[in-house]
Amino acid sequence: MIGSQLDFWVAVIAMAVITYLTRALPFLLSSRSRWLRRLTEGSSLAALGPALLAGIATAVIMPDVMALSGASQIVPYAGGLLATALSARRLGNAGVAVIVGVVVYGGLLLVVGR
Fold this sequence. Notes:
Number of helices: 5
Low-confidence stretches: none
């Protein structure tokens, strides 16, 4: 029990530090910094932020998906994920896509019933 709690907190702290660094590092570096040029759009490191967010999302979503059983649990979850992905692709706005996904998830949860 103690080991799993420790693993959980180490993962949470690591995600917080990595997220903070991806957000704060561009502001901490000077505009002439070589590191800043490596982190901007012309670099292969430009995908680091989205890749970290995708990894964190996968780590959060997969345990829930693995615990699902029955159509009454799978349909709302799959519908919400699909609505989020489609609206993100169509609208190009991650915030609106998340809102759409939550609304679809809630609607399907009401329809299918829990």
